[in-house]
Fold this sequence. Notes:
230 residues, five-stranded parallel β-sheet, Rossmann fold, Arc Repressor Mutant, subunit A, disordered C terminus
Amino acid sequence: MRILVIEDNRRLCAALKMNLTDEGYVVDAAYDGLEGQTSAEMTSYDAIILDIMLPKKDGLEVCRELRRQHIATPLLLLTARDTVHDRVRGLDSGADDYLVKPFAMPELLARLRALLRRNSQHKSGLLEVCDLVVDPATHFVERGGQNIDLTAKEYALLEYFVRHPNQMITRAIVEEHVWNYDSEYTSNIVDVYVRRLRRKIDDPFDTKLLETIRGAGYRLRTPHRPDSME
């Protein structure tokens, strides 16, 4: 999942980026409002963390402009202002949530997970497709009651698929949401990781979930369940 952090305090920005990266997110950073808005307009992010007090263009203006452009990316505002009026202004500008500084990192991560599932069919916090269960809070994965050990990148890839069930996902989309722009990867790295993932979540089981759509990409499908007969 790709996250944009727009924060002019470079120390805080670096800490956010480090913690989010440790959680398996792909993170881009911007240090002023104009740079952040441009990044949000040019790249499809899964969520944006946006400070209000920014140079060049404040966060509320950035938020309003993104919403005017119908960019509906989930957006979490950060600010030192904690009055009711300030919170109302932030939410009325189009933000989805509001977090007051100083904050605890576990709370930010929990709020981010809540934003990511807001438009999802998964409301319990767990991501489930068939008998496959993924817990974004702990990165625990099981299928058919069996624990499945994944590397950090395998987990990130699986989480993206599970959040978009039955959708055709191209290799380009996977690269954009799961790999850093500055990371070194070969042209077939997505195929390599899909094969690794398939060996762990599909090969040991009768029902196959990961489909290859020849010449296009991949899909994690929900198997059709026939209506029960009385």
